[in-house]
């Protein structure tokens, strides 16, 4: 029998750590044809989702899928994300969390940003309005939400691994940078 990956267990543990400490857990997610999220908030194939208790209902963090209901611009939507598509989980307030290695995309996995929700097969969902600042779920591009920026470099690039982008000023990886957020480290 195949061994269960550690990623879903780490996601659940960090979610619990965030909530126990009063932080707001966010997921940075790679969007593909299996991901069900509002596409107009997808930027560069990624989206950041607030998965706090206050922003979601019916949150289920399984070993293969994370799904929940959330409101975007006042409309309720069912969100589904494959665990393999989660790029990072972190606390909004301080940036502490964990980034995960990026799995290679298959060409048929990429979905244009203007596609409809889900599989686009007439699910009856109207086009969403622009997310206002009062929405309980802060969906935003990972690049604007303080999510980790991962690059392949050095020996890791030769081995096919991923390493966190290092700062050139010699500061430690976990010290807060601009905006007061610490850098996330890739844990293997």
From TrEMBL:
- Which GO terms are recorded in the biological process aspect for this UniProt protein? positive regulation of protein catabolic process; proteolysis
Q: Does the keyword Hydrolase apply?
A: yes
One Pfam entry for this protein is SspB
Region: Disordered, residue numbers: 103-188
Q: Which UniProt keywords apply?
A: Hydrolase, Protease
Q: Name one GO cellular component term.
A: cytosol
Ranges annotated as biased composition (Low complexity): 160-174
Q: Which GO terms describe its molecular function?
A: peptidase activity
The UniProt entry, under Gene3D superfamilies, shows: SspB-like (2.30.30.220)
Domain of life, source organism: Bacteria
Q: Which NCBIfam families match?
A: PRK11798.2-5
Recorded protein name is ClpXP protease specificity-enhancing factor
Say which species the protein is native to.
Pararobbsia silviterrae
């Amino acid at each position: 029998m195949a061994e269960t990956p550690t990623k879903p267990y780490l996601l659940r543990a960090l979610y619990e750590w965030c909530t126990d400490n009063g932080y707001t857990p966010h997921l940075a997610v790679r969007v593909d044809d299996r991901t069900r999220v509002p596409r107009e908030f997808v930027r560069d194939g990624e989206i950041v989702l607030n998965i706090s208790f206050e922003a979601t209902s019916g949150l289920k963090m399984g070993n293969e899928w994370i799904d929940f209901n959330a409101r975007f611009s006042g409309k309720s939507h069912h969100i589904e994300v494959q665990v393999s598509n989660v790029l990072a989980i972190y606390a909004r307030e301080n940036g502490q969390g964990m980034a995960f290695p990026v799995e290679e995309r298959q060409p048929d996995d990429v979905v244009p940003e203007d596609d409809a929700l889900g599989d686009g097969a007439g699910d009856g969902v109207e086009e969403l309005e622009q997310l206002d600042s009062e929405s309980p779920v802060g969906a935003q591009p990972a690049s604007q939400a303080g999510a980790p920026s991962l690059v392949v470099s050095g020996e890791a690039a030769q081995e096919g691994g991923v390493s966190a982008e290092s700062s050139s000023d010699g500061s430690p990886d976990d010290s807060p940078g601009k905006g007061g957020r610490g850098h996330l480290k890739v844990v293997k």
